[in-house]
Structure formats: C-alpha cells, structure tokens
Design the sequence.
C-alpha cells in the first residue's frame, strides 16, 4: 500500500472513530436527559455498526447480491451461524445468548417504533428498552473489539 492510500485509510478510520465517539456521547446525553426514543435510535445504529465490524473483520460477506449492506437480522444470523464465529475464542465473547438478547431487544424496539403513533406513551416501558439497549451496546462494543483483534491477528499469522 502506498503512503497516500495509508493516509486515506487513516483519515477514514479517524472520521469513523470521531463519529462513533460522538454517537456514544449523544447516547449518554440522551439517557441522562430522559430522551429515550433518541437513545434507542442511537443504540440501534451502534449495534448495527458493531455487528458489521465483526463481520468485516471475520471476512464474512455483509452485502447482498445487489451490493447493499445486509440488515441487522441477517447480520445476527451470520454471527450465529457462520463458521468464522464458531471457534471457542469468538463464541466465548459473542455468545449465542448475546446474539439472542440483541435480537429480542431489536424486536421490542421495532414494535415500539412501528406503533409510535398508535400506542399511548409509556415512559417506563420506553426507558426499560433504552436501558437494555445501552447495556447491549456496551457489552457488544467490548466483545467486538476483542474479537476484531483476534480476527486481525489470524490474518497476520499466515
């Protein structure tokens, strides 16, 4: 890779890092301020990004036949069933239970979002979904960092 390509990659990585840092700060602000819908939208974006990152580092295809990024359901399915995620190191970090928890949270989040204009506002219910999402974001973020380092090291070893 020539120096210009490395510089472009570093700039892109720095932009992504800054955007991710801003999302995490905005998530914390939203939670502290009681803006739970905003928090839930940010959580979904972060969870989707972390799943995408794990698939990329594992070398697993994350686009459909038309070149579009696959949806969260498909990302979770691949993280559950793709052989790259079946070894002991990876599976101890990104457990089937964690994937199922994310899927369950996503279902609750989708029901809430799709019924937004149809249901009466229930502060405690929305807060609970936001709190679950924040916990999942923190857990998944830590696990994906570890797994990505593992996948990257595997690529360097051969």
Sequence:
């Amino acid at each position: 890779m020539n120096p210009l390509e490395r510089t472009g990659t570093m700039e892109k990585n720095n932009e992504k890092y800054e955007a991710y840092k801003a999302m995490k700060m905005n998530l914390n602000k939203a939670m502290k301020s009681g803006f739970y819908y905003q928090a839930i939208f940010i959580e979904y974006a972060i969870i989707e990004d972390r799943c995408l990152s794990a698939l990329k580092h594992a070398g697993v295809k994350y686009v459909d036949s038309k070149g579009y990024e696959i949806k969260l359901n498909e990302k979770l399915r691949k993280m559950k069933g793709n052989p790259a995620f079946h070894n002991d190191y990876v599976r101890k970090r990104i457990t089937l239970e964690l994937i199922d928890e994310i899927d369950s949270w996503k279902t609750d989040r989708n029901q809430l979002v799709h019924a937004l204009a149809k249901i009466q506002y229930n502060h405690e219910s929305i807060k609970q979904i936001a709190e679950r999402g924040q916990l999942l974001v923190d857990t998944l973020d830590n696990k994906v960092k570890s797994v990505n380092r593992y996948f990257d090291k595997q690529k360097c070893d051969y």
